[in-house]
Write a structure and sequence with these properties.
The chain is α+β, with helices and mostly antiparallel strands. Helix content is about 55%, strand content about 20%. Helix 2 packs parallel to helix 6, helix 3 runs antiparallel to helix 4 and helix 7 runs antiparallel to helix 8.
Length: about 240
């Protein structure tokens, strides 16, 4: 048993130690992936486990090459592992969804990058540090997520889409209506269609969960008799 522990703790790459590192890395990555999957993210258990596992394997190879081929002039244990830092960015970018002003997946992308670094730490034999890093990552994803939702539980981010059968240039009447109901307008997106003589305005708003939109929509419709439609969405659509 002591021999096995020594092999696991050995700074040199060996079969027993490498297998332990790979298993630990996959387990820690799966733990983080389980949390992401519970939030409905596409990147789940398998994705995070593979990212952590691959990062650990890259680190093991990075250590193994100069260990075996000591005669190499450029035997740098950190060379291959360093590429993980930049390479994992492609996976992170793939997890981010951008939809006309609404961006989702940033937390998952950050989690992917963090999990890759955790895998590198496991490959380098930093067991306790990698476990603490995994626990901190889960703390941020679970506990701080609940705190954010509790802190801002009474507010939601919505999109009010207004379509007018005219070229609209003055938005102040609508902004005054929002102000009456304590609605914060974070941003505005305007699209003119000159062929059809229509204007589409998307208001990104921060609003209370107890707000009655029907009354607000009625007042918005009264501003312009050429109002075609007023819709409420969670993100901007064409």
């Amino acid at each position: 048993m002591n021999d096995i522990i020594e092999l696991i703790l050995s700074p040199e790459v060996n079969t027993v130690g490498a297998c332990f590192k790979l298993a630990l890395s996959a387990l820690l990555g799966a733990m983080v992936g389980l949390e992401r999957k519970s939030k409905g993210q596409r990147a789940g258990i398998r994705t995070f486990a593979l990212i952590s596992l691959g990062a650990t394997l890259a680190m093991l190879v990075s250590i193994y090459i100069p260990q075996i081929y000591m005669g190499l002039k450029n035997g740098d244990p950190g060379r291959i592992a360093a590429q993980v830092v930049s390479g994992v960015g492609f996976l992170g970018a793939g997890a981010i969804i951008q939809s006309k002003g609404s961006v989702r997946g940033l937390t998952t992308a950050a989690g992917i990058w963090m999990t890759a670094m955790m895998g590198v730490a496991v490959g380098a034999g930093m067991y306790l540090i990698s476990i603490v890093a995994a626990l901190l990552e889960l703390f941020i994803l679970i506990v701080l997520d609940r705190y954010e939702h509790t802190r801002h539980a009474s507010y939601e981010l919505k999109i009010i889409r207004l379509k007018i059968g005219a070229l609209l240039t003055d938005l102040s009447p609508y902004l005054d209506i929002f102000k009456q109901y304590n609605i914060t307008v974070n941003d505005k997106y305007i699209r003119y269609e000159y062929d059809n003589t229509t204007t589409t305005v998307n208001f990104r708003i921060r609003v209370g969960t107890d707000i009655e939109f029907i009354e607000i929509f009625e007042k918005m419709r009264e501003v312009n008799d050429k109002t075609i439609s007023i819709t409420l969405n969670d993100e901007i659509n064409n």
